[in-house]
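Subject: sequence -> structure tokens, single chain

Hey, anyone have a minute? Need the predicted structure for the following. Not urgent.
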Amino acid sequence: MTQKTPELLRVIIAGALVLLVVHTLGRFIYTPLLPWLVKDGVLSLKQGADIASWNYLGYLIGALLAMRWHRVAQIRKILPWALAINVLSTLLQTQAETVEALSVLRLINGITNGLVFVQAPSFILEWLARHGRATASGLVYLGVGFGLVVSSALVAIPAQWLDGPERWWPAFVLSVPLAWWGWCQLRGLDIPEPLEKALSTDITAPSMRLFDRASTPLFLSYAGAGLGYILPMTFLPMLASIELAPDSFLVNGSWLLVALATLPAPWIWNKLGALLGDALALRFNYILQLLSVLAVLLLPSAWGVVICALLIGGTFLGAVLLTQRLARTLHPHQGPRLSAALVALYGFTQLAGPWLTAQWLAANGSLQGAFWLGAGALFWGLTWALLVPEKSK
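Reply:
Had a minute. Here:
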């Protein structure tokens, strides 16, 4: 059964806006905010890395909870609450005057982000699959790309008029209407009870194991992706502020470059996956991600920042959508559960990145030196991606 284009677009846009709220206005806006919060005296660089780790720990917890609550009926109940609490945590961050308070709020923000980031795309993918449009699933991630552009503007434009915790206000004000409209469109999706039961109890499914010969390389590869991409996505603007002149465009503009490169990325990788096959497209994606981190390490500062921003922005969402879709191809009988497991693993390795960076900085290491960890992780991811089959044999 195919779905009419207007309704398909409405569902894709709703999912994109939900991800925009939790994953950019809730999560990644912290990246361009960090240099300002350090400048305002709210945080030190090490405290900023520690707080990022609390957010990624929350993301891991949220993804693990999504593994438990993976059935459609559970998603219908949990998703609106997670979305609402995520927006509320952004509001409370406008009042967070201490490192401890901000750490707790970023933890809560991460938990709800992890839940929504797993549940919303999985919910939509099952609806799309029912209507014969599963290949459109990657378009939901356009919300993240567009959200990075929005988050850059929400930080840069009012930067001279806001100070400290006040810098969270623009994100909250925009989150409220977007979250409300997005959920209003998703809550009525027609995924019937029989399909829901099939996802979790279908006795004809070959296995309910998460790890087998087909899926294990995909898990190991995705672990490398999580650790590899999170360093530039968390610290690239901070690195630019350290290595470049204060009046350099890249101090504030590096995040804008990431955002602009991210904007078309879901469409591009969605298309490449359809043309080349998701497994081959994923390998190409890892090569570009690896080059993005090596650019910071091996090229002059300004060129390295620019190339890293463009390549990491143009690839990280591609790895997400290709991996998620490839996972469902390998094990279509447990799509939402497998998706949650992959995001949980991604969340764990993301948590490790800022924590290891904080330890490195505490030992008087440089921020640039920490990026070697990301390069090694992406090489690991590429190696295992070479062993991922296009479909289960």
